[in-house]
Amino acid sequence: MTSIRTKLLAITALLVMATTVYAGQGLGHFTKNNATLPLKDQVAFWDDASKTLTIIYTPSRLTASEKEKIKSGEPVFFVLSDKSSPNQQQWQWYPYLLTEIKFNSNKIQTNNIKNIFVMAYGVEEQNHTDNINTSPNDAIKVKKVGFVNEQLKLDFEGSDELFDSQYSWDISI
């Protein structure tokens, strides 16, 4: 049986590889109405106490220092608030996406997901968050989350309509 520490090392290794492999084409996107946030980089961490995998997705590369600050518990908003927009014509601020996947136990498996939280900051307007909190269902499809040869694989997509806004996303690592 694989230990949580081994899984965390595998997550870290995979995310480093994914960042390198997908740097040109991206990890996916998050769209609200007509505003699309391309996802180019990420930082992930596991909280053993809450059995939660948290992944922060950004529209440009993060520095090693930024990733370490986020992993050490500094609020994401503060770490990224001074970062320059990757597209000044679309945003004069730095948008990002946060996902939290809570599991029923320490087994990171698709059929063990308890809850999914998606929070998008600044996709359509500055200082505005869009929050979607649900269990896996027809709107949020987790195609795969688990380990293959000690590497985390995550593939999920979703769409929703809340308060007259349309949301969709498709993310793979």
Report what the structure shows.
The structure is a single chain. This protein is of the alpha+beta class and 173 residues long. It has one domain. It contains three helices and ten strands. The strands form two sheets. Strands 2-1-10-9-8 form a five-stranded antiparallel beta sheet. The two termini are 23 Å apart. 27% of the residues are buried.
| Portion in helices | 10-25%
Number of beta strands: 10
Order of helices and strands: HEEEEHHEEEEEE
Name the average pLDDT: 75
Q: Assess the beta-strand content as a share of residues.
A: 35-45%
Strand order of the largest sheet: 2-1-10-9-8
Largest beta-sheet characterization: 5 strands, antiparallel
End-to-end CA span: 23 Å
Structural class: alpha+beta
The number of distinct structural domains comes to 1
Determine Rg (CA atoms, Å): 15 Å
What would the principal axes of the Cα set say about the shape? globular
Number of helical elements: 3
User: What are the low-pLDDT stretches, counting only 5+ consecutive residues below 50?
Assistant: 5-24
List descriptors.
173 residues; alpha+beta; five-stranded antiparallel sheet; 10 strands
Task: Sum this structure up briefly.
The chain is an alpha+beta fold. 18% of the residues lie in helices and 44% in strands. The chain has one domain.
